[in-house]
Amino acid sequence: MKILVTGGTGRVGSEVVRELKKRGAEVRVLVRKEGTPLPGGVEAAVGDLLDPVSVRKALDGVDKLYLLNAVSPDELTQGLIAYDLAKKLKLKHVVYHSVFRVEHFKDVPHFASKLAIENALREFDVPFTVIRPNYFFQNDASLKDPLTKAGIYPMPLGPVGISAVDVRDIAEAAALALTCGGHLGKTYNLNGPKVLSGPKVASIWSGLLGMEIRYAGDDMDAFEQQMRQHAPSWSAFDIRMMFQGYLERGFVAEEGDLETLTALLGHAPRSYEDFARETGVEWSSLIHDRTPAAAA
């Protein structure tokens, strides 16, 4: 069984590749550039999701597809090119990486793209599974400076909060859906074990870092303006609309979600506290490695 993974060098996709290899699957990863580093035993197919010719070549000899495409202005086109070719080639199974509560966020550009791709999957006769993850714990791994230097948790999770999930649980769920029976036609909501509000996450980091961490609040105009300093304007707006949707419509696990994910994984979903501890250790290690003594 050979599986093509798109997005296989990113935060989630690389974990999916790792989990598939653990389970003995043959894995091919679609990469943009020749020579992109990949784990041992993983095949590279150079291409671009906007180039049907290269995607068709990457799918040659493949049995299954893990379809994950990055948030971009042409996400819908990318996803449909890959899906349409999977349909044409009669692949045995497509596992599509969508997003939790997608049907309630039709005003968020990248959610709307994912909903359209989900609808295409359900319309035609390619065997599919949809995974719908919540916000990733690992998004917060980039917050070292705001947390440790400014003493602020900047992500506007709101006072109610969201059921964020660990990327490793997402990857396990995807790999199990691709390598085990019983998942065709299923849609899985992937949520973490606790509801994380902005103040709650700030308090977790306060305890871990031994300093006061304040929640920055829910000023969405200020958040979007800050995002524009690090991302294109379209992306800042898209992400702003996502978080605004969290505040307005909620992003908390639905009844039965945790039990379903626990049964799928064979263990309880990982906790944010454990992720934060691991990340804090990583940050400490990086600081130690950059000291003059270490450099010498």
Question: What does this entry show, briefly?
Answer:
With 296 residues, the protein is an alpha/beta fold.
Q: On the 0-100 scale, what is the average pLDDT?
A: 95
Number of strands: 9
* Order of the strands making up the biggest sheet: 3-2-1-4-5-6-8
Ends apart, CA distance between termini: 48 Å
Tally of individual helices: 12
List low-pLDDT spans: 287-296
Q: Identify the overall geometry.
A: globular
Label the structural class. alpha/beta
Task: Tell me the strand percentage band.
Answer: 5-15%
Tell me the major beta sheet: 7 strands, parallel
**Assembly classification:** single chain
Helix % is 40-55%
For the CA atoms, what is the radius of gyration?
Answer: 20 Å
Strand and helix order: EHEEHEHEHEHEHEHEHHHHH
Please describe what this structure looks like.
The protein has 296 residues and is of the alpha/beta class. Helix content is 45%, strand content 12%. The strands form two sheets. The protein has a seven-stranded parallel β-sheet, with helices on both faces. A two-stranded parallel ribbon has the order 7-9. Helix 3 links the parallel strand 4 and strand 5. Helix 2 crosses helix 3, helix 3 packs parallel to helix 4 and helix 7 crosses helix 11. The chain is globular, with a radius of gyration of 20 Å. The C terminus is likely disordered.
